[in-house]
Design a protein that fits this description.
This protein is an all-beta fold. The protein is built from no helices and eight strands. Strands 3-8-5 form a three-stranded antiparallel beta sheet, with no helix packed on it. Strands 4-7-6 form a three-stranded antiparallel beta sheet, with no helix packed on it. The radius of gyration is 16 Å and the shape is elongated. It starts with 5 loop residues before the first strand and ends with a strand.
């Protein structure tokens, strides 16, 4: 396009690379049907207690890989576990550290 966007399977790309349909990267990769990123607003996380958050665009299925990173350091060292809840636009995030309030940045991929 005149904006410099390239479309594969679309004549109206809205991003630098806009692919309509299944995507596969690399010779050993798995085909991906959908992917996206979102921001889960600031929440207070209690250690080892799942907390649901809105992750706009997440499909209504549990067959989605989700990873999240905090927008600031956690109050103690620990791990972050994230998964799709099966409901559209929802993820469950569990933090293993003590109670902390932080925004989460997440990415999801649907094979």
């Amino acid at each position: 396009t005149s904006a410099g966007n390239v479309g594969v399977g679309t004549t109206s790309p809205i991003a630098a690379l806009d692919v309509a349909g299944t995507t596969k990267l690399g010779s050993d990769g798995v085909a991906v049907t959908n992917m996206g990123a979102c921001t889960v607003g600031t929440q207070t996380y209690t250690a080892n207690t799942p907390k649901n958050g809105t992750c706009t665009g997440t499909p209504a299925t549990t067959a989605v890989a989700v990873t999240c990173s905090p927008g600031a350091a956690l109050s103690a060292a620990g791990t972050i576990l994230a998964r799709s809840t099966g409901a559209g636009n929802q993820v469950a995030i569990t933090v293993s550290s003590t109670v902390t309030t932080v925004v989460m940045y997440c990415m999801w991929i649907q094979p």
